[in-house]
Every structure is written in C-alpha cells, then in structure tokens.
Design goal:
Blueprint: H1 6-33, H2 40-55, E1 59-65, E2 73-79, H3 93-96, H4 98-105, E3 110-113, H5 122-131, E4 135-141, E5 150-156, H6 165-204, E6 207-213, E7 218-221, H7 223-226, E8 237-238, H8 239-244, H9 248-264, E9 268-275, E10 281-292, E11 298-307, H10 309-333, H11 337-348, H12 357-370, E12 376-379, H13 386-395, E13 404-408, H14 414-422, H15 439-442, E14 447-451, H16 458-470, E15 472-474, E16 481-483, E17 487-492, H17 496-502, H18 507-513, E18 516-519, H19 530-545, H20 554-562, H21 568-582, H22 592-596, H23 610-624, H24 635-639, H25 643-652
Parallel strand pairs: 12-17, 12-18, 13-14, 14-17
Antiparallel strand pairs: 1-2, 1-5, 3-4, 4-5, 6-7, 6-11, 7-8, 9-10, 10-11, 15-16
Helix pairs in contact: 1-2, 1-6, 12-13, 16-18, 19-21
Length: about 650
C-alpha cells in the first residue's frame, strides 16, 4: 500500500499551511497598500477571519486604547464564533491581565498557553479561564518606535496549541500591516478633523481669506472677504481700489501697519472703518502674516478679515447703557435711608401672605435676625413655608447680592451628599470625570439653605459641624483646605430634641445651628390667614391660566376654615389650583370632589406625628393618580416635588405599591 507515514503527513500539512499563510500575507499586504481610510476597519476584520481560518484559530480580537479613558482597552475589531466569550468594553488590562499587560507595554510578542503560565501570572490565568481561552498569540500594535496603539490577539478556545518563534514572527508581519493601516487612518482622520474645524471656525466667525501679492499690488479675496467691501466676485482688487474703500481718517493707520509688518516680519492686527457703498461705514478687523522670497524681499501677505460692525455697535450701546446705569446709581444713592429701609423690609417679606398674630411674630423675629450673620434654624411642619422665610432672610441681609444656594438634605442620597456639599476633584471616585465645586463653595460670601437638615446622616453631620465652626473643608479627593464665608440657614420638620436624645442627631451640631430658632406655625394654628392665602392663590392661578374668578363663595371658605390642613400652605395652594382648573364661571367651585382628593381630615389628624401625616398624604395622592408619579397629573406634580425626590421619600417612608 502507498500510504505516507504519519510524520510525513503531518509535515506535509504544516508546509501546506505555511504556504497558504505566505500567500494570504501577500494578498493582505497588497490589499492594504492603497486602501482608503474608510475601508480599513472592514478590511482588518476580514483579514482576521482569513488568518483564523488559515491557521486554525478560533478567535481574533484587536484592542485599542479607549477614547474615554486612555488607560483602558476596548475591542475595535473582532472575529470569532457566535458562542464565543462576551465582548468586553473599556477593559482595564492592568488589573485583569497584569502580567500580560506589562509584557505588552514592553513591546514583546507572546505565545502562551493558559495552563502553562508562570506562578506570577496567576491572576492572568484565572481571567483567561473565565473567558474560555486556551492558548494565544498576542502582539502589540506599534508603528516603528512610536507609542503602542493597542494589541491584537489570535486565540484558541477548544484546545491548546503551541507555536514556534517562526510562527510568531509570521503573525507579527500581519500586525505590522494593521499598525501601519491604523496609524494612516488616524493621521487622515486628524487632517479631516483639522480641516473641518478650520472651515467651521472661519464660517462661524464670518471670516474671509485674502492674499496680497506684493509684486503686482493685487489682492485675491474669498467671497466672505469681499462682502464687507461690496466688491463683486469677478472684480479685480488693486491696492488703489482697496485704499479708496478705507475711511480717510484710518487710511494712514492701515498703510503704516502694512509697512511695519513687512519691515519687521511681524503679524499685522488692525481694526479700521471701510465704505460699503452706502453713506455709512462698516468696521473690519484684519489679521495678516508677511512672507518673503529667498533673497529676503517681500513676496506676499496672507490673512483674514472679519466684519466687526455689530461688535462695535454693541460696544457703543454698552457704553451708553453703563453711563445710564451710573446715573441711576447716583440717583439711588441720594435717596432717603429710612425710605430704602422700609422698602427693603416690604420687599423682603412680599412672598409671605398673612396678617395673623402668629405669622407676624415670625416676621418680626426674621426681620431682627436678617441683617446679622447668625445661623438661623427654621422649625415647622412640611408645607408651612420654611423655604419662603429662608429666601426672605437672604433678601434682607447684607449678602443679598451674593448667591443663595438651597440644599435639600432629604432628596440627596447619603453617598452623594458629601460631594454635593463640599465638591470633588476629578477621579475622586468612579464616575467623577470632572472637578466639581460643592454647594458651600458656590455659596461663598452668600447664604446656604440646608433644608430638612434632620435627614442628614451622622457621619455627614460631623463634617458639617467642622465647616460651621471653622469655615473650612476639603473637597473629595483633595488634601487642600478650602475656606469659605457662608451664612447658614437650616430647616427641619423633625423634632431635633428627640433626635438628639435617641442619638439620631448630634448634640453639638444641634446647639451650633440652634443659635436663633424660628418656629413657623402650621396653617391650622393661623386660620385667620386662610382667606388671604386663598384669594392670593386664586389670583395667581387665574393669571396663569387666563381665567377670571372674582368670587369666593362663603360655603367654600367655611370648608377651608374647618379643614385641618395636614399639608399646610402647600396643600392649600394645590387645592386652589385644582379648583381654578375645574371652575367654569367667575365663582370658585370648591366642591366635595376637590376635598375628596385630599387626605381625610379626622379628629385626631392634628395629633399624628409628621411622618404619619406625610405618609398618609402621599399614599392618598398616589391612589388618586393610580400610582402615576411623573408627568402632567402625576403625584409629583400634585405634591409640587421633583419625581426623584418623591421616589426618595417613598423609600424613606416605606411606601410600596400594592400588588
């Protein structure tokens, strides 16, 4: 029998494979020589497929450094079986494959088997097992001695293979073709992007390009450059014609700038007036660079010009406005001091509606402390208007021209509140891609309003105490101390004294913020203000909705006076808004249906603790909206809170949707 020995058959297969690969290498090389940049990606993946089929690889992946984060690798080109390993995105190779990563950075090609990796590559071995990779040829992508662009790997998934140094060198030839192609693609993309940016910049700035020939005294100018001068597209622009267009008062200045530019070899940058063919003059800014012959004599000047007429007009308008402002300022400074003080107080509390003794006591206390720098603690149930009083305190203070920054401590998750209050440096934690100023820095020299401070965690209370005592803190991720001058107004609907007893709130922080407490009474304790508040909200929503309601029926008013208002002023405001919507005529329709949308007013409602009242109120609104949270008619809209804030309160109050 004529049967080849097994060793001869194997040698024949190896030689045949090498022959096929050499032919494939020639074809790939020829293909990539004149390949346009937009076809390179498809050609690389096709080459990966052909190499895997020729050399019996199961998978090939080409990784490049991520655009988002330069130290991460992401797969840009892939060939493999449909059931292959999951495609990783933005992989940190230094942590997943630390041993292989260091070898690649050194520029060394690798031919490795997963189970034969050295002891120091134990983490690499576990990672490769998790991906199902048996053996690999891994080669860095590098053009000449330039920095490594990425890495390409050829892998087997079902059985181990070994490769000779000669095999690796052959495969390396393919990666060099890939490297050159990718480098060429990047270069072409940079050129295209640069040209696009230049074109966009010129178009956005309405800039025109011009070229002055020193020998012929003739200008070449783009369409945009001719536009301010009124030159026709086919008109020859001589130096004589150009100078005829310049305002007589600016002509000598332009001539001198051009002469000095050629004499000194410096750029010219000049603004001057030109005639545009009408009785008026336009303003132009010209920037030019002189060029010379090899013997040093002037050759040409290349530059751009921009029509700045609008900018000049705006500058003139601004100067006139500033003069008017200065005149008004001087007039205001001459006003009587006591008149200004009365106006200041009136405007400060313009948002506070009510004449009852209880609310007037609040305003009296607020007016006394407003002009000081003392910390104020606003106490009261939800919806009583603590935020309105806080704004009034700021407007009446010496810091009114500086920022007023609000922080809702209940709406911020505990893991984010520190970075929100004190800021963070880039890279302080995962996802912190930029440096961010905290609320205290934003409020420097102004006022910060810490709403619902009782919801703040103990760890955060400790850090807040330091800021209040020393006026300094550090941003997350930075050792540098930041000093601020901030007036603090805090508010809470909780009983902080009870929270101090139970250890939920720090005693030292309580005494630090309890410098000047103001208790804002609930609406049920200031019923005399309900008619004024109702009339105010009716007028407000009529203006907003274009309606005319000039009558508030006595029966409707009696219903409001007899209701307990667990949601206080906020609840009254939303009730009036609903009634304005459904009222068909000029009389406010306060039907039983409107009250049906409110929580049931039981006799012991006023005795409920605040959280129970809030929980009942939120559950009732959710039931009315069929648990719709966002959008028009949603619970968040009715409760006048942000949807994310409502979801946070649902979790905190353990409110769950019925199954």
């Amino acid at each position: 029998m004529n049967k080849k020995p097994q060793s001869s058959e194997k040698l024949y297969q190896i030689l045949e494979q090498q022959k096929n690969f050499e032919q494939l290498l020639l074809e790939i090389s020829a293909q990539f020589i004149s390949l346009p940049a937009e076809s390179i990606d498809d050609a690389i993946e096709d080459a990966q497929r052909r190499i895997c089929e020729t050399l019996n690889f199961d998978l090939s992946a080409l990784y490049q450094w991520s655009d988002k984060d330069p130290h991460l690798l992401t797969i840009t080109h892939l060939h493999g079986p449909p059931a292959g390993p999951e495609r990783p995105v933005d992989m940190d190779a230094s942590k997943i494959f630390p041993w292989i990563y260091q070898k690649i950075l050194a520029g060394a090609p690798l031919a490795i088997s997963t189970e034969q990796l050295p002891v120091e590559a134990s983490l690499d071995k576990e990672s490769r097992r998790s991906f199902g990779v048996k053996s690999s040829v891994i080669i860095p992508i590098q053009e000449g001695g330039k920095p490594i662009l990425g890495v390409v790997s050829f892998d087997t998934l079902y059985k181990e293979r070994s490769w000779s140094e000669k095999d690796v060198q052959r495969i390396k030839l393919v990666t060099e073709i890939f490297s050159n192609a990718l480098a060429r693609k990047q270069s072409e993309q940079k050129i295209i992007e640069s040209e696009a940016r230049l074109t966009l910049a010129l178009e956005s700035a309405e800039a025109g390009i011009w070229d002055f020939d020193y020998t012929t005294n003739i200008f070449w100018a783009s369409t945009q450059a001719r536009k301010p001068f009124g030159y026709r597209p086919d008109e020859t622009i001589s130096m004589e014609l150009f100078e005829q267009s310049i305002h007589p008062e600016d002509l000598e200045k332009v001539r001198q700038a051009r002469t000095e530019s050629f004499e000194k070899g410096e750029k010219v940058d000049i603004e001057y007036r030109i005639s545009s063919g009408t009785d008026s003059y336009a303003w132009v800014c010209s920037l030019g660079q002189p060029y010379y012959h090899t013997d040093g004599t002037p050759a040409r000047m290349l530059g751009v010009n921009i029509d700045i007429s609008r900018r000049k007009q705006l500058e003139l308008d601004l100067m006139q406005s500033l003069a008017e402002v200065e005149k008004l300022k001087q007039q205001l400074e001459q006003e009587n001091y006591y008149l200004r003080e009365d106006l200041r107080l009136e405007q400060g509390f313009e948002d506070v509606i009510g004449q009852s003794r209880e609310i007037q006591e609040v305003l009296t206390s607020a007016s006394r402390v407003a002009s000081t720098t003392a910390t104020v603690l606003l106490l009261g149930e939800t919806g009583t208007g603590k935020g309105v009083i806080a704004h009034a305190l700021h407007r009446l203070s010496d810091r009114k021209a500086q920022p007023f920054v609000t922080v809702n401590c209940a709406a911020l998750p505990q893991n984010l509140i520190e970075s929100e209050l004190f800021g963070r440096e880039k890279g302080a934690f995962t996802g912190a891609h930029t440096r961010q100023m905290g609320r205290f820095e934003v409020a420097n020299r102004g006022t910060i309003f810490l709403d619902e401070i009782g919801e703040m965690g103990l760890e955060m209370q400790t850090k807040l105490l330091r800021v209040l005592q020393e006026g300094e803190f550090e941003r997350l991720g930075s050792p540098k101390t930041v000093k601020v001058d901030v007036r603090v107004i805090a508010a809470t609907s909780r009983n902080l004294i009870d929270d101090v007893r139970t250890g939920r709130f720090r005693e030292d922080l309580f005494y630090r913020i309890n410098v000047f407490p103001i208790t804002i009474p609930p609406l049920r304790q200031r019923r005399d203000d309900i008619p004024l508040l109702a009339q105010h909200f009716v007028e407000k929503y009529c203006r907003k909705m274009g309606k005319e309601i000039d009558r508030l029926p006595k029966a409707s008013l009696e219903k409001m006076l007899n209701y307990t208002w667990p949601g206080n002023v906020r609840e009254l405001k939303h009730l009036i808004e609903r009634c304005v919507i459904i009222s068909p005529g000029n009389s406010l329709a306060l039907s039983d249906k409107c009250f049906a949308m409110l929580p049931t007013a039981s006799a012991d409602a006023a005795m409920k603790d605040l959280q129970s009242v809030e929980r009942d109120h939120i559950q009732e609104v959710l039931n009315q909206t069929n648990w719709k949270i966002e959008g028009p008619g949603g619970a968040a809209s009715i409760l006048n809170v942000h949807p994310s804030t409502l979801r946070f309160r649902l979790k905190k109050l353990d409110i769950k949707r019925p199954s």
